[in-house]
Each structure stands twice: as structure tokens, then as C-alpha cells.
Amino acid sequence: MIDLYTAATPNGHKVSIALEELALPYTLKVLDLSKGEQKLPDFLAICPNGRIPAIVDREAEDFAVFESGACLIYLAEKTGRLMPTDAKGRSRVLQWLMFQMGGIGPMMGQANVFFRYFPEKIQPAIDRYQGESKRLFTVLDGHLKDHEYLAGDYSIADIANWAWVRTHRWSGVAVDDLPHLKRWLEAIRQRPAVQRGIEAPPSRINLTKDGDDAAKKFSEEARKMVEMGQNKKDAS
């Protein structure tokens, strides 16, 4: 049994999708980020960085893994699925996983901060992070022109990138001119395990849409967390 400590964010959904795809039994432990539950001592003992997601493998002497990419690799290697075992195949998956971890996630995350959450609209910063997100989307689109998935068969690389790219509207970045990326987004969205994974837990808002009262309230709460910072005493 896996304990999944998580919340309804792209990083959290990466791991819940993988668990669903792998058909691994897991217990969902949802943390309220707005109340700072990810900074409490019990969770910090699992994840010193105080960020979701994290997992505890009860079948492996309560082995804890934090950081979403590390969780994905651990689960893939534990089951022998969603990542090839040969050196080249494994490397291809890890390259595209690192592409998400080092590029897609950070750039979209900063786009969200400056486009959605900061009270002051700093246009050069918005342009910078939306522009870089779009550039990275274009890289994906170019690769997917000749590949069904990012690294051979469907893998943790697809899961990681998809969980973020699906929320492109929330970052204020359009993908209408990227047909291969759109095809890939829709194909993965149709997978039953993916549909279950993004409901574990369900988001209070639809990050693929925009403009309703719930989205505005969510942005206000996120803005407070951004303004308060990330130290252990903050509710972030």
C-alpha cells in the first residue's frame, strides 16, 4: 500500500495519475495548502521541503519519497512499467521528465504567479514566463509531430508533462496553433486512469477554464500564499 500525500495541483496529479495507471493500491492523504498543513512536523518528516506530493511505501519498510519526479521514477521502477529498463529507453524517458521538471513546471508556475496571483501586473515578467512556456510547448509540438508519445511508449514522461500542459489556459498560454500537442493532450485525457487520477483529489476549480467566481476566489487565496512567502511559519 502507498500513502500519497497530495493536493489538487499539477504536481500532485502527476503521482495520482501514475498510481492509477499502475493499478497500485494507495491511500489518499489530502493536505490543505492554504492552512499550511504541508509545513507541519509530521509531513516535514516525510518531505523536508514541505511541498506536495510525497509518498510512503508501506510495503518497503515505510520508505518515503518526496519530489514529484522522484515519486514517478520510484513507482515506475517498483513496478517495471511506464519506463523502459534498457539504458537508452530509460534515458529517453528521463530526458523528457527532466524537461518538465526543469522547464515546463517552473515556467508555467511563474506564469501563474505573475499572470494570476501578484496584485501588481508586471507585464515584462508576464511576457517572459508566458513566452518561455509557449516556447517549451512548441518544442513538445515539434517532437510530437513524428512521435505518438514523448519517449516511445506512453510513460511517466507523458504523465508529468501532460499534468502541467493541460492547465495552459490558467497560465494564459494558448495552444491552438500547436496541432500535435493538442492531439497528444486529448489522447491522454481520454485514458480512464488519467481521468481518475485528476480527481484524486478533485480541484475546487477547473484549471483548464477561466473566469468564474470560484477561479477568482482561488486566485485570491493563492495570492495570499505568494505574498506571505514560503517559510515554515507561513500558511503556504
Chain-averaged pLDDT: 92
Strand content: 5-15%
Q: Using the CA coordinates, give the radius of gyration.
A: 17 Å
Helix proportion of residues, in percent?
A: 40-55%
The tally of strands reads: 4
| Helical/strand content category | alpha+beta
Largest sheet: 4 strands, mixed
State the end-to-end distance.
28 Å
Describe what this molecule looks like in 3D.
InterPro entries: Glutathione-S-Trfase_C-like (IPR010987), Glutathione-S-Trfase_C_sf (IPR036282), Glutathione_S-Trfase (IPR040079), Glutathione_S-Trfase_N (IPR004045), GST_C (IPR004046), Thioredoxin-like_sf (IPR036249). This is Glutathione S-transferase N-terminal domain-containing protein. Belongs to the GST superfamily. It holds the Pfam family GST_N. The chain is of the alpha+beta class. It contains nine helices and four strands, in the order βαβαββααααααα. α1 packs parallel to α3, α4 packs antiparallel against α5 and α4 packs parallel to α6. The longest helix is centred in the middle third of the chain and has 31 residues. The two termini are 28 Å apart.
Offer a few descriptive terms.
236 residues, alpha+beta, four-stranded mixed sheet, 9 helices, 4 strands, 53% helix, globular
Describe this structure in a few short sentences.
The protein has helices spanning about 10-20, 40-45, 70-80, 85-115, 125-145, 155-165, 180-190, 190-195, 215-230; strands at about 1-5, 25-30, 55, 65. It is of the alpha+beta class and about 240 residues long.
